[in-house]
Amino acid sequence: MDGVPNVTRADAVAAVRNPLAFIAARWTPAPRTVQRAALAALVMSVIIVVTGGAVRLTGSGLGCPTWPKCTADSLTSTSEMGLHGAIEFGNRMLTYVLCAAVGWAIVAARSQKPYRRGLTRLGWAQFWVVMGNAVLGGIVVLVGLNPYTVAAHFLLSSALIAVATVMWQRTREGDGAPEPVVGQAVRQLVWFLVAASVLLIAVGTVVTGAGPHAGDSSEVARMPLDWETVSKLHAVLAWIVVTLTFALWFVLKAVDAPEGPLHRTRELFLVLLAQGVIGYVQYFTDLPEVLVGLHMLGSCLVWIAVLRVLLSLRERPDTVLGLPGPAAEATVGTRA
């Protein structure tokens, strides 16, 4: 039986001063471990959006009426607060699970050999987005679920999903310079698709802000817009995204593009089809909460699928060695 390795005082000091460098010097994760860590962060970024939607759809948005505590006298929800308090507080606790997943991704990326600075920075970018969104979530509660802050909260979550998706993709690539696998015209078409998707998501938050699901059982101000008119605009944008996706698939077939972009475009089309069915059914059935929640999940999956199409347009060969890790990282995230 192996003995416990001796930990010197110098080791302890090094671990306290720079825990990431300390771990990286003693652990080299397998590439699959890094990939799974990045995927876990991406999955949690989607889950936190869906559970946040559940908070709103169950009228639990002010289940914890203040922030960062749940009440003025209690950090956690109390029995008197009932189910709404438990749901809101449970969603707040999931933020710590998200932080743990992002932290694991950062540690795994930082410890990979050879050191990949860009991959580690993507992990830290997720961390700071999570911290910013946590503060914004508190502001949402403190201003009584103002619909504009709720919309900003969702958009920042979409930014988190974007960074997490890019990191997940980068764990499966090399560090060589990106090499396009399709022509410039195809790349421009995909950027139009990305722009239309961003606009679709943004208008979706306006539909939410003007719609009937305010997030709390009491009267909550809504955006002063006609909900049905905004919903129709949202549907038009959805059809534009679908049309661009179909056009992209047709162009990729015409130019005999590699299988990667074709597969990702086909996946996007299928996700859009499912999302469209859910969207129309919820519209004509007076927005049942379950379908609205599924539509929020679909929004996340559409965004991920769009980004995967964009990322499939280039390759990064594994021909360039990673940079050596820094001897020390003076401040959290500044050099990692």
Keywords for this entry:
336 residues; mainly alpha
Please state how the strands of the largest beta sheet are arranged side by side: 1-2
Question: Tally the helices: what do you get?
Answer: 10
Oligomer: single chain
- What's the overall geometry? flat
Ends: how far apart? 37 Å
* Number of strand elements: 2
Which structural class should the secondary elements be placed in? mainly alpha
**Rg over CA atoms:** 22 Å
The biggest beta sheet, please? Answer: 2 strands, antiparallel
Estimate percent helicity. 55-70%
Q: H/E order of the elements? A: HHHHHHEHHHHE
Report the sheet-strand fraction. Answer: under 5%
Mean pLDDT: 87
* Low-confidence blocks of residues: 320-336
Structural features, described:
The chain has 10 helices and 2 strands. It has helices at 9-17, 19-26, 31-57, 82-111, 117-142, 147-170, 184-210, 227-254, 259-284, 289-311; strands at 179-180, 314-315. It has a two-stranded antiparallel ribbon with strand order 1-2. The two termini are 37 Å apart. The longest helix is centred in the N-terminal third of the chain and has 30 residues, at 82-111. By secondary structure, the chain is mainly alpha-helical. 68% of the residues lie in helices and 1% in strands. It is flat. Helix 3 runs antiparallel to helix 10 (289-311) and helix 6 (147-170) packs across helix 10. Residues 320-336 have low confidence and may be disordered.
